[in-house]
Structures are given as C-alpha cells and as structure tokens.
Amino acid sequence: MMDAGLKSELQKQGVFTTTLESLYNWGRRNSIWPLQFGLACCAIEMIATTMARYDLARFGAEVFRPSPRQADLMIVAGTVTKKMAPQVVRLYNQMAEPKYVIAMGACAISGGPFKQGYNVLKGIDRFIPVDVHIPGCPPRPEALIHAFMTLQQQIAAQELTGPRRPRHLQPELPSEFPVPRYGDHDLVPPKNPDRWTAPAISRSNS
After folding, report:
1. At how many degrees (to 10) do helices 42-50 and 141-156 cross?
2. Integer Cα distance of 4 and 204 in angstroms
3. Mean pLDDT of 114-134
4. How many angstroms separate the CA atoms of 187 and 198, rounded?
5. Under the phi-then-psi rule, with left for phi > 0, alpha for psi from -120 to 50, and beta for the rest, what region is 113?
6. Terminal C-alpha separation, the chain
7. Mean pLDDT value across residues 11-25
8. What residues does 133 pair with on adjacent strands?
C-alpha cells in the first residue's frame, strides 16, 4: 500500500493512484441497474425514490431495466405471495452475475402483517440470498437510498481474491437456485435448505 502522505501529495499534482480491485469495485458500485418490477405498496415508495425529489439516478441507478438479462439488482418491494415466489426466483436466476438483492419492507423480510396468512411467504431469503434488508411498512424513499448506499459500501469492500471474495467469484457456489413449484398445500420445497434453516430454539427448565 502507498503511503497516505505520498498519495496526498501526488493528488495535489494531479496524479491519482489506485488498485485494480478498487477500480473494478468503483465501476460496479456506480453502475447498478435495478430490475423493473414491484409486488405491493412498497413499490410505490420505490417509484418515488426514482422521481425528481429523491433522484436515485445520482447513485448510478439511472434506469430500471425491463429485462432481468440487463439488470444486476433485484429490489423485492412488497408482499411475496406463494403464488408469486416461483416467478421471483426465476427472475433472479435469469439475472447476470454479479447480482444483488434488496428486501424492501416488512413483508419482503418476514411476511409483515400477513405473516400468519396461508398464502404469504415469510421472507424472500428463504429462497434467494438477500444482501440488504430494509425494515418498515412501508419504508420511505430515504430508507431505500440508505440501503442503496449500504449496498455500494459492500461492493466497494469486496475482494477479488482470497477466501473473502464475493459469491460470483467462487465457481463452486451456485448462481441459480431451485424454483419452487406449487404443491397440494404449499410450495415444494417450502424453502431452499441451502439458503435458510429454522433457528434452533432452546428451552430451559427453570
């Protein structure tokens, strides 16, 4: 690593130094293209975030792409019903790597106020990996912007080599996940066991 003082002096002379890793991550974090789709009321807040008052384009998300082949960020904005879950997983599988997921709102995270409903998925992270969670019902546009900046920080900190490199640089990890099918009473499987398992509950006798 270059000495901070030397780096500062070079910058004063118009000479900027960087690493290949920093340049690579800089390009990716400033050109994130979200997928254009919404599920419920959180999508209204997501749409508002792209309008002139908040202007998500300032952060590199210039346009929402109409095709998963052209997008690298899925914002799961709203309630994921079990009827919709296979389509969400299928869209995620069609996105090109590296790809990211933001779960926006209580419904996308845990089912929200519909958690006990028979037809609502209790969190999209049961089937696909989620990078950033946004609590709220619904979260305001400022919360989505904060989540977007958090995702940018995660991308900027990624390493190209070593054990901490991101998922898309580890060929042994899957880039696609099983699409659930409709069973007689529930989705089959009801969750992706490689992504989510129920937390262990320990009860004391005291």
Report:
1. 70
2. 54
3. 92
4. 16
5. alpha
6. 55
7. 84
8. 103
Reply yes or no on whether the pLDDT at 198 is more than 80.
no
What gap in Å lies between CA 189 and CA 181, rounded to an integer? 7
For 59-72, write each residue's pLDDT tens digit. Answer: 888 788 999 999 99
For the record, the structure tokens of 109 come out as 């995270």
CATH code at 29-158: 3.40.50.12280
Q: What is the mean pLDDT of the chain?
A: 89
